[in-house]
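Input record, target 12 of the design panel.
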């Protein structure tokens, strides 16, 4: 594959951007000279419009780059990559991990069922950025090639499976922190309600302050259990990453890549490989999604009880128990819970159907799991922020 960069040219007084020409087995194509993606990604993006329905999550992009960084280090250590090239590939991968070059992702999950286009998109971004770092022209794949060097010793299914575990882990940990904060806030609200009721206590009719205080305590207990379920599913998913078959070229390189990957992603203890291999490649993801769905069910019930309690407060006295901001955040959180429950249903169907490649991950599974984790985290955080201040401070406008 070759690339030719043209100079800046002017037509009718207008400056035109520089371009480069890349060539593969199907012919030559023109690309913007500034683009980090290459000819293979350009051809893939033309199959379907960009973001046709399932855009790639930033967390997954960063996780794939983490795999590329680990692979570059493993191959440099083994002598399969020159030291200078290895350093350039590692630095280029780190830039993607840091959030740079995201506009260069011009494919989405609908491009192909295997994730090959997304993997190649990252390969070309990292290769072309590495070429820049060593003062070579982008597209000069005779020096650094996206396939021979960036993708060395990797399979698409292995890259995606490992990266999805890392992305899921990071979002799961963030959700666990959010749920823990919500549990604390529910107990604080219960204490506030108990302080208002005094020693006489009102009856337990649904919607009364005494009733909602008791409900908050019960939901706090349920959410603690949900937190434990999510943590257990996340541990099982990430601890088995060493059973993922990253590559097929060299049986010695795969374990090295996974070793570095565990260090970069800060993953904890690992299960014996034979334990994880006893499951299909989608069971761990389905287990985590199910734990998130169970949490969504509890949150939906909680939001329904909060709505009832808010609606039954005497007019003009809502601030005595709940503010309008809390009520609005509860309404939003209930919608988030509905969506998470729906995500789990379609994810389960995808996991059940499977794929021709037993190691491959159905794109809808990856999209739904990460989207569910992100939405739940945002919804819980919004409710916690709305409930952060006491009723007295809200009434005083503080």
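The sequence produced for target 12 reads:
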């Amino acid at each position: 594959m070759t690339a030719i960069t043209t100079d800046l040219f002017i037509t009718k007084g207008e400056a035109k951007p520089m371009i480069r020409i890349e060539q593969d087995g199907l012919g030559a194509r023109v690309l913007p000279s500034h683009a980090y993606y290459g000819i293979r990604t350009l051809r893939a993006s033309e199959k379907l419009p960009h973001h046709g329905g399932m855009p790639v999550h930033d967390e997954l992009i960063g996780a794939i780059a983490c795999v590329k960084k680990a692979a570059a280090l493993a191959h440099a250590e083994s002598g399969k990559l020159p030291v200078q090239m290895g350093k350039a590939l590692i630095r280029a991968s780190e830039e993607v991990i840091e959030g740079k070059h995201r506009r260069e992702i011009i494919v989405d999950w609908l491009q192909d069922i295997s994730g090959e286009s997304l993997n190649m998109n990252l390969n070309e971004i990292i290769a072309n950025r590495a070429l820049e770092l060593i003062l070579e022209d982008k597209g000069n794949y005779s020096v650094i090639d996206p396939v021979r060097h960036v993708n060395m010793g990797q399979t698409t299914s292995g890259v995606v499976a490992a990266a999805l575990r890392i992305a899921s882990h990071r979002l799961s940990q963030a959700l666990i922190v959010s749920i823990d904060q919500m549990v604390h806030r529910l107990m604080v609200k219960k204490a506030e309600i108990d302080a208002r009721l005094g020693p006489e206590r009102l009856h337990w009719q649904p919607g009364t302050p005494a009733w909602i205080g008791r409900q908050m305590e019960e939901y706090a207990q349920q959410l603690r259990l949900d937190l434990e379920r999510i943590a257990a599913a996340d541990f099982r998913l990430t601890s088995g990453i060493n059973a993922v078959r990253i590559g097929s070229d060299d049986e010695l390189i795969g374990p090295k890549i996974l070793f570095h990957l565990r260090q970069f992603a800060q993953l904890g203890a690992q299960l014996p490989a034979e334990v994880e291999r006893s499951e299909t490649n989608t069971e761990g993801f389905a287990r985590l999604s199910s734990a998130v769905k169970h949490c969504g069910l509890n949150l939906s019930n909680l939001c329904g009880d909060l709505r009832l309690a808010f609606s039954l407060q005497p007019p003009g006295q809502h601030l005595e128990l709940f503010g309008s901001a809390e009520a609005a955040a509860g309404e939003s959180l209930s919608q988030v819970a509905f969506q998470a429950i729906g995500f789990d249903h379609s994810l389960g169907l995808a996991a059940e159907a499977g794929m021709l490649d037993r190691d491959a991950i159905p794109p809808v599974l990856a999209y739904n799991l990460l989207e569910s984790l992100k939405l739940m985290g945002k919804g819980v955080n919004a409710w916690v922020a709305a409930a952060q201040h006491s009723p007295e401070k809200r009434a005083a406008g503080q």
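The longest strand covers residues 19-24.
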